[in-house]
Amino acid sequence: MVAITVLLAATAATFFLDLGSGNLGQNTPQAAFTFDYDAGSPDSLTIEHRSGDSVRAGSLYITVSGASTANGQHDFTSIDKTLGDSSEITAGSRVTFSESSLDLSDATVTLNWQSPDSDRSIQLASWEAP
After folding, report:
1. CA 54, 105, 42, 64 torsion: positive or negative?
2. What is the pTM for the complete model shown?
3. Euclidean distance between CA atoms 96 and 92, whole angstroms
4. Residue 78 pLDDT greater than 80, yes or no
5. What is the 3 state secondary structure string of the chain?
6. Which domains does the chain have, with CATH numbers?
7. From CA 108, how far away is CA 111, in angstroms rounded?
8. Measured distance CA(48)–CA(35) in Å, rounded
9. Alpha-carbon Rg of the chain, whole angstroms?
10. Dist CA 60 CA 47 (whole Å)
11. Which of 3, 22, 111, 118 is the most buried (most CB within 10 A)?
C-alpha cells in the first residue's frame, strides 16, 4: 500500500511540476564563462567562453540591469541583447559588449541561454560591477 502511494505521488509530482516533459535540462549547455570589465569611454565588458559545450550564438542573450545612462540617470529596466547569428561559440571565443550610452560601473550583466525548442531560458553566467 505504501509503495502504491509513493508511486502515485511521484507520478502526480512529475505531471504537475512538469518535470518529465521538458528537455531543457538535457539540452542545456554546460559551459564556463568569464567577464573582463574595462571602464572607459564607452565602458566595455568582454565575455569569454572558457570551457565546456559549444553554444549557438543566436541562443545566447545578455541582460543588463542597473546601468547608468550617459546623462547619469539609472536605467532600472533590463536591456536584452541577442548575440546574433547561428555561429557556434566555443572555448576561447570572446564577445565584447559595449553601448556608448551606458555606464556599467553599477550594473549587473547576465548571460542567458534560450532553448531553441521552447520559450524557456536559463542563466549561464553573471557579472556584477566591482
Report:
1. positive
2. 0.69
3. 13
4. no
5. CHHHHHHHHHHHHHHHCCCCCCCHHHHCCCEEEEEEEECCCCCEEEEEEEEECCEEHHHEEEEEECEEECCCCEECCCEEEECCCCCEECCCCEEEECCCCEECCCCEEEEEEECCCCCCEEEEEEEECC
6. 29-128 (2.60.40.10)
7. 10
8. 6
9. 19
10. 12
11. 111
For residue 118, how many other CB atoms are within 10 A of its CB?
Answer: 12
Amino acid at 115: S
Q: Which amino acid is at 24?
A: L
Residue from 96, 111, 114 nearest 58 by CA: 114
Read off the C-alpha cell for 101. Answer: 550610452
Q: Using the structure block, give the residue that is written with the C-alpha cell 572555448.
A: 91
Above 60 in pLDDT, residue 12?
A: no
Q: Which three cell numbers stand for residue 61?
A: 542573450
Residue 69 pLDDT level (bands cut at 50, 70, 90): confident
